[in-house]
Fold each of these.
Amino acid sequence: AGATDLARQGLVPAGTYRNRDHLEGKVKLPEDLPLEVSDLLFGPETSGGLLFSVPANKGQRLQAALADEGVQAVSIGRVTAAEVGQPLLEVL
């Protein structure tokens, strides 16, 4: 709670900028994505252990199991095969 407001104020860890620099040219974000949302995506607290993938046919079951434990989880995209030169991540 409050992370978006803090990011909007520019209060993000320095690792955010290192992550963004490291992934330059590999990540394609929508042009109208607010900077604070982009900062949260590159934040060192959220760009690893809190993001994972499961087979599509198990996603809803996993979300239900996490909800039973009081953990909110949402689907943010899907994994597809990339072609040479394409971004590794695209926020839909």
Amino acid sequence: TAEFNNNDFEFYPINSDIEEIVVLPISAKAQIGKHPLTIKSNLRASFSTVIKVKGVNFKVTNLTVTNNLSQKGYNANSIQKNVANENELIYSKVLNEPVTQFLFTNKFVYPLDKVVNVGAYGNIRKSGNVSLQHLGVDLDAKERTSVYTINDGIVKFTREMNDYGKMMIIDHGGGIRSFYLHLNEFLKSEGESVKRGEAIAYSGNTGYSIEPHLHLSINVYGNSIDPLFFIEAINDSF
């Protein structure tokens, strides 16, 4: 097991029965400084080190509400309230479920045929006293572009919500979940197993969305982390 930030995390087999890995989350809101890490084993002596977390000056942008969105009842305060309520629902329905072993055996793939980042991870969007951090990436996608699951998993959540729009969550095991927001149409239902690269939805412009795109988030043990960095980093383990 790995003890990290006073929490214990399990190692799970990957590629073979003799190789195991653990994915440890460090969110955009993590405290700057040294984070203790101890690897414990019944077969070997424990190993301790620290992970040094550096600060990042995340870009601050405007929390934009277009006339069209305003007519639908969106404003900075309603957006903030909706996000809080939707995050609470997601936690109760998905993120507090027991963690399983990895449901994948291959590298992760991108959710679109072409990946163009048009909304960076960690950006802080502000309007007056409302401040929201963008805990995902916005990827350029015209309406009804095919969206693919980034790896094998089980669809755990499909629902249309006020801010996140039509949203799908896939559990990949090992505490790893992928979120797909602002979709136009679901192609898979809750409880279905999906294979890496399989079409799961069409991109859209639902919820609080300025224009058609795909918002992709990666959540590891309840922590939202940079999706594009995650895919690159975990693929190095294969």
Amino acid sequence: MAKVERPLVVRARRHYHRGVRRELALIWSLYAVQGLPFGFQTTAIPVLLYERGASLEAVGLSTALATPWLLKPLWSPLVDRYHSSRLGRRKSWLLPMQALLALTMLVAATSHESLPALLASVLAMNLFAATLDIAVDGFAVDHLGPGELGHGNTAQVVGYKIGMLIGGGLLLWGSERIGLVGMFVAMAMLVAAVALATLLYQEPPRAHLETGTTESLREILGALQRALSTSGAGWLLAVVATYKIGESMADVMFKPFVLSLGYTKADVGRWLGTWGMLFSLAGSVLGGYLATRLSFVRAVTVAGVLRLGPLLAQWWLALTPHPPEAAIVAITCAEHLAGGALTTAMFALMMSRVDRRVGASHFTILAAIEVLGKTPAGWLSGFVAARTGFAWLFGFATIASAAFLLLLWPLARTSPRTEAA
């Protein structure tokens, strides 16, 4: 009998791994689509505003374009609740949001000469991308087991950052040849390609039932309330809300800082948007590796300690009268490497604490708390830099990033036994 069963087990395992790889590839692609508009916002918008004579305060306030990412918990229960049985629970939201995202990019291509119209288009892109993110998060929670979270969150963060790399670094770098029209058309074509792959994917019809999903809004809200009141939930929210404060303040103002040294828009696109993002991708792989080898809290701790070095180096750059180009590039790459590792490890920690019955809504709340923590920091960064200088800003960012590590000790005491193992 054993000779008969063994080939069946082998074939079953191969089928399972093929399914996981296919779903990870789709997850990767969908997160890349979401990263396109945010990459344009975080890399291109500050440069465009600075070139058109906007103040540092205005550059900092431009991060408010990401507000839909903060508000998405308001409509995330609807994504968990309503769907078409014909399309599938998650595809019912994945396909329309991608279509609207591509359409908005084409609208931006025709109206980019007007700065208000361009900013409004970016805001709409973030709205559709944030709603898409709710469905993709739910898709990942539905299909990834506990042992796959490290790889799944690597696909999540790497995919998102590749989208940012394309939308912010590579296309900004090449914007002198293809212009903003070419940038938006290229992004719309990429979204359409991923939408086609999503359309061809056959979503398992019972995936939402196997995870114990509730069927009414009242049940969804009740499950969320219980999930957010469990032991350690408060410490988790505090960690998620604070781990990016310092890094966000430094990141928003580092681009104007480099421009203030006499470097060009192409230099920013090449160093920060391209080289920095490549190292951020490598950091995401490192963070996923840490999450598969250590407990999630320990992985976050290691990555958080690594991040302090590059932030200190940015502080040193601001205190140096004429920092060399090689130092700027090296510090940029190191900061993105450590930041990428920390983000991936943190997202794995967040997903490990999600109630799968309301996976999209619960993870969306945690992700929104992350945005709530870092977005106001970006808003304030311009005011701080304009009044105190870049050195004081980078110094405060370093101290804030070190203080966050103190919250990990009480969180570790509330970790589930399975996570500690």
